[in-house]
Amino acid sequence: MQEISSSITFEIRAGETVPMRVTRSTRLAVHGSAVWVTRSDDVEDYWLAPGHTLRLRRGERLWLSAEGGTAARLAFSVPARVEQRAFDWLVRGARRLGVHIGDGWRTV
């Protein structure tokens, strides 16, 4: 058996802030209400409207906050392992060259 992908979805109430640690590189998708994302290794904060996604790095810490009158649904999807290994290899190579990839991971 081979893992293809896995995902988990949870809800954040309006005004609630949730701290989180990313254990595997993941893609975050926002549904419902907009979400404010603060990342430990990034000087930028991210405002994600419903339908937007953000690529998360293994080991980083997040602070997620839902805005507006309704709850936000957050879906975290983990890519297949082969794709993940290739992505991690690319990130390590970029760091060795002194390239910061942070802003390019945002998909809008």
CATH topology: Jelly Rolls
Can you count the beta strands? 9
SSE order, one letter for each helix or strand: EEEEEEEEHE
Distance between the amino and carboxyl termini: 34 Å
Spatial ordering of strands, largest sheet: 1-8-3-6-9
Helix content: 10-25%
Question: Mind telling me the C-alpha Rg?
Answer: 14 Å
Question: What's the domain count?
Answer: 1
Instruction: Characterize the overall form.
Output: globular
Q: How much beta, percentage-wise?
A: 35-45%
Unreliable parts = 103-108
The secondary-structure class comes to mainly beta
**Main β sheet profile:** 5 strands, antiparallel
Q: Using the 3D structure, state the CATH architecture.
A: Sandwich
Our count of helices gives 1
**Mean pLDDT reading:** 79
Overall CATH class: Mainly Beta
Q: What do you see in this structure?
A:
With 108 residues, the chain is mainly β. The protein has a single domain (7-107), classed as Jelly Rolls, CATH 2.60.120. Helices cover 15% and strands 43% of the residues. It is built from one helix and nine strands; from the N terminus they run E-E-E-E-E-E-E-E-H-E. The strands form two sheets. The chain has a five-stranded antiparallel sheet with strand order 1-8-3-6-9, with no helix packed on it. It is globular and about 45 Å long.
